């Protein structure tokens, strides 16, 4: 065993996968759903075939995708109040990013609000339009203030 392996042996193990990859896969699945609605199990099956699936935290991916899928009407309602246009006029990518981040802000308080916003902004930088990340950031900032007022005010 090398010295580096010995040092790492005592540390707690990293989760099976990474949450950023889980969010990316959820984004791809939600994008597909927004373009052509289909059953959740079919989306999960398609995402499991993605090359990055092995690097993702599968449990978190499923939880996130199922949560957004189950709460999509509530999430759209909560997001819509902070938009400058009808929700149907959002690009499907930005809509899916807002759904994922809104889900984390509203329903998963284990994720700090700044992390939820930052992850949404990073997804928008990678997959969204030229200045889409700025729009996503503005909407999520307003949603965070409403969804987690005590955390935001700290």
Mean pLDDT across all amino acids: 90
The helicity comes to: over 70%
Could you give the order of the helices and strands? HHHHHHHH
Radius of gyration: 17 Å
CATH topology: N-utilizing Substance Protein B Homolog, Chain A
Number of domains: 1
Oligomer: single chain
Number of strands: 0
What structural class do you assign from the helix and strand content?
mainly alpha
Number of helices: 8
Distance N to C terminus:
46 Å
Strand content: under 5%
Shape: globular
Largest sheet: none
Outline the structure in words:
With 154 residues, the protein is mainly alpha-helical. The chain has a single domain, classed as NusB-like (N-utilizing Substance Protein B Homolog, Chain A), CATH 1.10.940.10. Helix content is 70%, strand content 0%. It has 8 helices and no strands. The chain has helices spanning 3-9, 19-35, 40-48, 58-80, 92-107, 113-127, 132-147, 149-153. Helix 4 (58-80) crosses helix 5 (92-107). The longest helix is centred in the middle third of the chain and has 23 residues, at 58-80.
Write the layout of secondary structure elements.
Blueprint: H1 3-9, H2 19-35, H3 40-48, H4 58-80, H5 92-107, H6 113-127, H7 132-147, H8 149-153
Helix pairs in contact: 2-3, 2-4, 2-5, 4-5, 5-6, 5-7, 6-7
Task: List key phrases describing it.
single chain; 154 residues; mainly alpha; N-utilizing Substance Protein B Homolog, Chain A; 70% helix; disordered N terminus
């Amino acid at each position: 065993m090398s010295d580096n392996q010995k040092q790492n042996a005592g540390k707690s193990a990293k989760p099976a996968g990474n949450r950023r990859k889980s969010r990316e896969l959820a984004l791809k699945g939600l994008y597909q759903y927004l373009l052509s609605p289909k059953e959740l199990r079919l989306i999960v099956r398609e995402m499991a075939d993605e090359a990055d699936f092995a690097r993702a935290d599968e449990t978190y991916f499923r939880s996130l995708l199922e949560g957004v899928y189950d709460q999509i009407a509530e999430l759209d309602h909560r997001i819509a109040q902070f938009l400058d246009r009808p929700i149907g006029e959002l690009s499907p990518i930005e809509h899916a990013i807002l759904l994922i981040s809104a889900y984390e802000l509203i329903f998963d308080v284990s994720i700090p609000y700044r992390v939820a916003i930052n992850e949404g902004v990073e997804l928008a930088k990678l997959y969204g339009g030229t200045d889409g990340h700025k729009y996503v950031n503005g909407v999520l900032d307003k949603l965070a203030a409403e969804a987690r007022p005590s955390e935001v005010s700290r």
